[in-house]
Amino acid sequence: MTRVVLVGPPGAGKGTQAAALSDRLGVPHISTGDLFRGHVGQQTPLGQEAKRYLDSGELVPDSVTNEMVRERLTEPDAANGFLLDGFPRNTKQAEVLGGMLAEKDTALDAVVELQVPEDQLVARLLDRGRTDDTEDVIRRRQQVYRSETAPLLEFYSDIVVPVDGVGDIDEVSTRVLDALGKRA
Ligand code: AMP
User: Fold this and answer.
1) Is there a domain that residue 173 lies in?
2) Stretch 110-138: mean pLDDT
C-alpha cells in the first residue's frame, strides 16, 4: 500500500518524481496543479474559477480544491494508493484529506519532503517555462509555500521523511524509494 504525499517548495521536483515513481510503485500520480490546468484548458466552470488563482500564484479556495480531490480519489485506480503532488497545501486541506481517508478506513503511509536549496528553485522554475512561471508569480508561490504549506511538515511530523532533492532524476527517485522502504 502506497499512500504518499510529496511536499516541497515550488521547483523541488515533486511532479517529476511523482511521474517517475508512479509506474514503479503501481499507483497513480495525482497532481492538483495538473487537474486545475486540465480544467482551465477545457474551460470548464471549475477551470474558469481556478484560472485567476493559478495566474497569480494564490491557492484556489479549499472548497473547490477539496471536492476535486475527493472525486479523483474515488476513481478505481486510486483504491490501492496514490502519489499526491501539490495536495494538501495547507493544514485545513490536510485535515480534510485525513477525513476522506478515514472514511475508507485508510490513512497516509508517508509524507516525502523534497529538500532543495532556495537558490536552485527559481532557476529550475525559470527553466520549466510554464505560463505561471513568471518571476512575480514564482515569488508569490514561494511565499505561499512558506506561510501556508510548510506548516504541513509540523502537522505530519510523525510520518515525514526528508529526502535530498538535489541530483539527477534517477538519483533522487532512488533516494525516495529508499526512504519509503520500497527499493527492490
Ligand atoms: P502546481 O502545479 O502544484 O505548482 O500548482 C499550480 C497552481 O495550482 C498553484 O499555484 C495554485 O494556484 C493551484 N493549486 C495546486 N494545488 C493546489 C491546492 N492543493 N490548493 C490550492 N491551490 C492549488
Assistant:
1) yes
2) 92
**Predicted pLDDT at 122:** 87
pTM: 0.96
Q: How wide is the angle at C-alpha 124 spanned by C-alphas 119 and 125, nearest 5°?
A: 105
Candidate from 6, 17, 37, 54 with most ligand 1 atoms within 8 A of CB, to mutate: 54
CATH number at residue 168: 3.40.50.300
Whether residue 88 is preceded by a cis peptide bond, meaning omega within 30 degrees of 0, is yes
Residue type present at position 5: V
Q: Are strands 81-85 and 2-7 parallel, antiparallel or unpaired?
A: parallel
What domain range includes position 129? Answer: 2-29+78-180
CA of 34 to the centre of ligand 1 (A): 8
Q: Which of 7, 10, 14 is nearest to 118 (CA)?
A: 10
**The pLDDT of residue 184 is above 70:** no
Looking at residues 62-69, what average pLDDT do you find? 98
Say how many domains are in the chain.
1
Grade residue 147 by pLDDT with cuts at 50, 70 and 90.
very high
